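ok here's Mitochondrial nucleoid factor 1:
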Amino acid sequence: QIADPETCDRMYESLVRIHTNYYKNKYPRLKDTNFTGVTVEDCKMILATDILKQMEDMKKGTWKKLREKFYAKKPEEDSK
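and the structure:
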């Protein structure tokens, strides 16, 4: 048994609206941009490249990371 059927019905209707994208369809966006003006595709591309860089760093071995860290300077910079 449900203690408060009226509250349960309101919650169910709210979940149905969320599931069916009721407000997205009721108030469609004119453009798929955000406040910066960047499109969704551009955001996905940026995020994808950042994640790829992070994954490449994770794949590197410890010695390779240390070598890159200590040998980041070019020899010309040391002589100056």
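+1. Helices lie at 5-19, 22-26, 40-59, 62-70, 75-79.
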